[in-house]
Design brief:
The protein is α/β, with parallel strands linked by helices and 435 residues long. It is 23% helix and 38% strand. Strands 2-1-5-7-9-11-13-15-17-19 form a ten-stranded mixed beta sheet, with helices on one face. Helix 1 runs antiparallel to helix 2, helix 2 runs antiparallel to helix 7 and helix 9 runs antiparallel to helix 10.
């Protein structure tokens, strides 16, 4: 049975499995919207270069087995060497406190499922849940219909969380292909600060499909950084939808590092809801074989005196494919907007390909906006220069590619994360580089 038929067939059983039922009508309405539009195909402009048949024609288990045998050694290999961090570990959808380390204080932190069951947080859901993620997308509607796993975090006014928080989503001991609908809600109140690292890991040879939706609310003078470390195995599919709404004088960053996974689709939507806002989006993609990574971004400049910065780098080998579609919308009242968008790509083999489409829609006349994209191969003169100094061809290529991707990491202020990305770069490039 294909995924679409399973979605309808399993929904009533899913609703009955929940302790909370106050979202039932909203879930049913979301399922109806999904059924009316179905999964996108290559005839849809937004999925013109991304074929989802590989995902949607498989059957999945909607009710993951909870038992696992994750060891400390396995978890240690996933860490960044971040002994001073906090971390939250979800295994097969369930939050495991014994595998987590939480020292943060003066904040509201709950698993998403627990928050749904907590009457005290009903008003939070009424105010925030699905207010910026609501759209006509098949995957966001599907997530609303089935969401259960994930976390809710509210950082109160002027609270600065000094330690980054690493969120691990792990799937293990699943005998069938498994479907997760992960939901995250982050609220960063006025003057507050937080940094999140998110990573997904499939320990099985069966396929995992994760359909994730994250809503980020950043209030005046607050700062929220979200780092996505995507380095899963070849039996993993990830559809990630992240929505960020910013109020005046705030700063929000989403960094996306895509190294693993069979098919990854990142949809990133920033909504600027005040003046003097800064929005940063950076991405590094290094893939090979027959992997596909698709980045779709959108920034909505709705107020004057705001900035946005997008810098995405891609390195493609084997028969891999990349997609980049970045959009910047500037409203007519959004004067003095400064928007920068750049996508640069290197193809290392004849079988690799990238489809890139930066877009600007500007309705204001006093703005500074630029966009551009490049697709090419390594510079032969630079290669010759390095090889003439005794550096092997493989090492010379790696050094040039590392330098090419490096500027997309410049705004990472978490040193262990920066080192981890550097080492993953070196590992993907097949050389040992001292950093």
């Amino acid at each position: 049975m294909a995924l679409r038929e399973q979605i309808t067939e399993n929904h009533q059983e899913f609703l009955e499995s929940l302790r909370h039922r106050f979202l039932d009508e909203d879930r049913k309405a979301a399922l109806e919207r999904f059924e009316s539009i179905g999964f996108p195909t290559k005839r849809d402009e937004e999925y013109k270069y991304t074929n989802l048949k590989e995902i949607t024609e498989k059957a999945y288990n909607f009710f993951p087995k909870e038992n696992h045998n994750i060891t400390k050694e396995q978890l240690d290999q996933l860490h960044l060497g971040e002994e001073n961090f906090d971390w939250i570990t979800f295994v097969n959808g369930k939050l495991h406190k014994e595998l987590s380390k939480v020292s943060i204080e003066n904040v509201e932190f709950l698993s998403f499922n627990y928050a749904l069951n907590d009457e005290k947080h009903r008003d939070v859901f009424d105010r925030y849940f699905n207010t910026i993620a609501y759209d006509k997308s098949a995957f966001t509607n599907l997530n609303q219909a089935y969401c259960k796993y994930g976390f809710f975090l509210k950082v109160p006014k002027n609270v600065v969380i000094e330690k980054p928080i690493h969120i691990f989503y792990i799937s293990q001991n699943q005998e069938e292909n498994t479907f997760y609908n992960t939901r995250n809600l982050l609220i960063v109140d006025e003057g507050a600060k937080v940094e999140i690292i998110e990573s997904h890991h499939n320990f099985d040879s069966t396929y995992v499909l994760t359909n994730s939706v994250t809503e980020i609310f950043t209030y005046p003078n607050a700062k929220a950084d979200w780092h996505k470390l995507q380095n899963d195995n070849d039996t993993s599919y990830l559809i990630d939808n992240t929505f960020a709404r910013q109020e005046k004088d705030s700063l929000t960053t989403v960094n996306t590092f895509s190294f693993g996974g069979k098919l990854v689709r990142n949809n990133l939507d920033f909504i600027q809801n005040g003046s003097n806002i800064n929005s940063f989006m950076n991405g590094i993609t290094i893939i090979g074989k027959d992997q596909l990574v698709d980045h779709h971004t959108a920034v909505h400049h709705n107020f004057p005196n705001c900035e946005s910065y997008q810098n995405y780098k891609g390195i493609f080998d084997g028969k891999s494919r990349g997609v980049f579609n970045g959009k910047v919308f500037v409203d007519k009242i959004a004067q003095k907007t400064n928007a920068y968008q750049q996508n640069n790509n290197v193809l290392l083999s004849e079988g690799a390909a990238i489809d890139t489409k930066p877009q600007l829609e500007i309705f204001a006349d006093d703005v500074k906006c630029s966009h551009g994209c490049t697709v090419g191969q390594l510079n032969e003169d630079a290669l010759f220069y390095l090889r003439a100094r005794g550096i092997s061809k493989k090492e010379a290529q790696a050094l040039l590619l590392y330098a090419f991707a490096n500027d997309a990491m410049q705004n990472i202020d978490i040193e262990p994360l920066k080192e981890k990305i550097s080492r993953l770069l070196a590992e993907k490039l097949g050389v040992d580089i001292e950093f």
